[in-house]
Design goal:
single chain, 349 residues, alpha/beta, Rossmann fold, N-(1-d-carboxylethyl)-l-norvaline Dehydrogenase, domain 2, 2 domains, 12 strands, 51% helix, globular, binds 1,4-dihydronicotinamide adenine dinucleotide, binds 1,3-dihydroxyacetonephosphate, cytoplasm, 6PGD_dom2
């Protein structure tokens, strides 16, 4: 780590943007958090707390909180984007050339439709001169904000940018690993939200521990099958941004996607489940987008099809479970052919 830290701005004053900004500021990185709501911003400046999205966590005295985008961006060398996927492109479009040349790191775990675009692909379209990376891993905001130990992945083909992100974010509570599979890392973060909804629903129904384990493992098989079809490296899904994030989101009641699934499993409607949450659960939109894409691409995704049938096609849960359990029994692990065709590098040996 270097002593001199580059100035960083975080866009988005929700739970994750606030968590990241606070962590950066505690790492002695000159940090500005931009959010759109002035009332919330002035409350955060005065009370040193984000009572709406991160209650109970004290903000670092050095963290600057502003709603003025121009001043937030003028000095920043790195910009972390923590805006929900539904608003991601419009926020970039509002900023325009103010982002050119900066290192832009998306932390948003969603997919844009039409186009089936990852957030970093939107960044490339809207800010062609930017340096692009994504950050993803088992990173529940509330736990990170409280200093619980975890790790994450920065993925980019720009190795210097990955090193900068490791430098500003890495600390005693967070390890930052690098990857060059940006697409796979980003896909992992988006896809696991769908399976977290299923896991929350299963927990609400009181299923056994074997069932929970089967669900997570088959979810990993299904998301990896899809990702490989789309061009990602299956090995990425054995890492923190794959199985790591899948486990935490499918097992923790802190996950908002899990909470939506749990509410659905208790009999609430989708609208009621989302309204009760009051925060973003990206998996609901990702489910729609993914179901359509898997049909277009002809990728077998029985869990996605089953959840879609329950939520959006009003099919009875018992019928869906019956179909899942009586489907053809295929392979456990599918990627032996890929592994055989990919010899180990010198470093891996
Ligand atoms: N909360 C978490 O534990 C983690 C969240 N993420 C991802 O971070 C992204 C952001 O999520 P959270 O911060 O958790 O959401 P949140 O629900 O806690 O907050 C959303 C924030 O986005 C703001 N926002 C919405 N539309 C906006 C717009 N048009 N312009 C400016 N701001 C806007 C809201 O005002 C709010 O401050 C999501 O894609 C999520 O998947 C990633 C890792 C962990
Ligand atoms: O991505 C997350 C943890 O890594 C947060 O998941 P939720 O959006 O379901 O809370």
């Amino acid at each position: 780590m270097t002593d001199h830290k580059v100035p960083v701005t975080v866009l988005g004053g929700g739970s994750f943007g606030t968590t990241l900004a606070n962590l950066l500021a505690s790492n002695s990185v000159p940090t500005t958090l931009w959010l759109r709501n002035e009332e919330q911003a002035s409350e955060m400046r005065e009370q040193r707390e984000n009572t709406r999205y991160l209650p109970g966590i004290k903000l670092d005295p050095q963290l600057t909180v502003t709603t003025d985008m121009a001043s937030a961006l003028s000095a920043a060398e790195l910009v972390f984007l923590a805006i929900p996927s539904g608003a991601f492109r419009s926020v970039l479009q509002q900023i325009g050339p103010g982002l050119a040349g900066k290192g832009l790191i998306s932390t948003t775990k969603g997919i844009e439709q039409p186009g089936f675009l990852m957030m970093s692909q939107i960044v490339e379209q809207e800010v062609p001169e930017a340096r692009v990376a994504v950050l993803s891993g088992p990173n529940l905001a509330r736990e990170m904000a409280a200093g619980a130990l975890t790790a994450t992945v920065v993925a980019s083909d720009d190795e210097a940018l990955s090193a900068q992100v490791q430098d500003v974010l890495g600390c005693q509570s967070l390890r930052v690993y690098a990857s060059q599979d940006r697409y796979g890392v980003e896909l992992g973060g988006a896809l696991k939200n769908v399976y977290a909804i299923i896991s929350g629903m299963a927990a609400a129904m009181g299923v056994g521990e074997n069932t929970k384990s089967m669900l997570i493992t088959r979810a990993l098989a299904e998301m990896t099958r899809f990702a490989v079809h789309m061009g990602a490296n299956p090995l990425t899904f054995l890492g923190l941004a794959g199985v790591g994030d899948l486990i935490v989101t499918c097992t923790s009641p802190m996950s908002r996607n899990y909470q939506v699934g749990h509410a659905l499993g208790k009999g609430l409607t989708l609208e009621e489940s989302i309204a009760r949450l009051g925060q973003v659960a990206e998996g609901v939109n990702t489910l729609k987008v993914l179901r359509q894409k898997s049909l277009e691409e002809g990728v077998y995704m029985p869990l996605v099809a089953g959840l879609h049938a329950i939520i959006f096609e009003q099919q009875p849960l018992a019928d869906v479970i019956g179909r899942l359990m009586s489907a053809e029994q295929k392979h456990d692990v599918e990627f032996s052919a890929f592994m055989a065709s990919t010899p180990l590098t010198k470093e891996q040996k």
